[in-house]
Structure formats: structure tokens, C-alpha cells
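pls design
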């Protein structure tokens, strides 16, 4: 099922979190093609996985859940990625850029920083369904979305709630 992408550079974060399908156990970072999409070598796959899970934890916190222990690791991981502020001499505009453009962690740090500035970072969440935890961008007007897809995960949750109510009658 096609889900809308996060805006701007946050799509990198969304795509990284979604390299692990919790329902099937498929991990795109376990394949050469999957790692290549992020510029990660086989040797760097474990670090990319740690970053992915720290991002997932932070996005779970964005969805209003108590952050798992991995959320605290995100700050430490991003602190290892030096960033630069560049200034365009033509118009004086400033831009945040990774000091090492080949570093996945630095590219993620830039995306998180940009998203924090424009308010979009808080809307990147993971699905409330424990068997899914797919990253999605909450486009709801109030920013209170709970599931990556109302048609799949939302419908499952509502059906479970309905069955629980019926069983209690």
C-alpha cells in the first residue's frame, strides 16, 4: 500500500525507519541493495540499525507514547555527526549541511534539525500498532493521527476494540 511521504529531507528519516518490516521481519539493511539506498556499507549496517531504532523510538514519542530507552540514544548518535552552516555569497542565505555528505548519521542530523525548525519533525510518527510501527507523516489537521493507515492498522485496532466491547456484553 502506498503511504504519503514525509516532507523535504524528513523522507530520509521515514525511509530509514521503514527499512525494517516488523510484521514480516524483512530488513532492507540486510541486503546490498537496501544498504546502497542509504550509502551504507555492510560494515556500517549495524550502526545504521542503531540509528534506525533510535529514530523509531523518537517517532514513537512523537505519537504520545512513553519513549523507549532507545530514544535517549538518538541525541548521542546525532552528536557524532558534525554539521556545517554554509552561507551563499550571492544572497547571504544560510544552509545547514553535513560536514561529511556521505555520512548517513550526518544527513539524518540535518533532516532532524530542519524538521525541528519548521515543526515537521514532531509530525513524523510511528504507527500505534505494535506489530507495525511503520513511520508515517501525520497530516491530520490536529496532528493526532495514530496509525500509518486508517484502512489497515486503524481498521484492525477498531475491530479489536469492537470485539472486546462485544465480549464484555
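designed seq:
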Amino acid at each position: 500500500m502506498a503511504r504519503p511521504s514525509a516532507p523535504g529531507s524528513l523522507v530520509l528519516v521515514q525511509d530509514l525507519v521503514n527499512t525494517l518490516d516488523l510484521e514480516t521481519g524483512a530488513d532492507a539493511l540486510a541486503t546490498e541493495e537496501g544498504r546502497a539506498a542509504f550509502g551504507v556499507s555492510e560494515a556500517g549496517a549495524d550502526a545504521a540499525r542503531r540509528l534506525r531504532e533510535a529514530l523509531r523510538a523518537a517517532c514513537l514519542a512523537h505519537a504520545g507514547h512513553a519513549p523507549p530507552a532507545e530514544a535517549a540514544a538518538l541525541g548521542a548518535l546525532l552528536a557524532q555527526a558534525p554539521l556545517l552552516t554554509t552561507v551563499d555569497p550571492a544572497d547571504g542565505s544560510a544552509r545547514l549541511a553535513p560536514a561529511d555528505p556521505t555520512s548517513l548519521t550526518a544527513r539524518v542530523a540535518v533532516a532532524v534539525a530542519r524538521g525541528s525548525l519548521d515543526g515537521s519533525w514532531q509530525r513524523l510518527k510511528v504507527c500505534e500498532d505494535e506489530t507495525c510501527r511503520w513511520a508515517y507523516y501525520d497530516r491530520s489537521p490536529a496532528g493526532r493521527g495514530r496509525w500509518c493507515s486508517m484502512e489497515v492498522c486503524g481498521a484492525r485496532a477498531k475491530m479489536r476494540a469492537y470485539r472486546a466491547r462485544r465480549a464484555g456484553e
